[in-house]
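Just wondering, does anyone understand what follows?

——
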Amino acid sequence: MEIKIDFTKSPQENAGDYYTKAKKLEQKRLGIEKTIADLEAKLEKSILTATAPGKAVTAPSIRQKKEWYEKFHWFFTSSGALAIGGRDAQQNEVLNSKYFDEGDLFFHADIFGASVVVLKGGVSASDTAKLEAAQFAASYS
């Protein structure tokens, strides 16, 4: 341990300075120990409440990236084909112009304001998938 002595001060003043510094460090040490004890108590309480019987532990929710078709009405048919329907006239137009590709089927009820439904890969889809897409179009008309 190295102690520096200020020769411009008396021995009592030097000792007093070191005594004051020691008191301050002791107060800091006590504060740190109290903080550690408080944090350990909080941690223990959190663990006990999280693992309490009958209480489910919930994981933080992870935000998943939305698929392009999730802004429309949509579902997968029982055979796995994607059916997409417009929510309004603007989305109907977008479905017709942007997402209606060769090999898709187009469904629409002959009612004003009815939803347009596109069955992706519908030409090769099963009759059940076509029926489901048609019912989907009728239900949103």
In short: The chain has two domains: 9-61, 68-139.
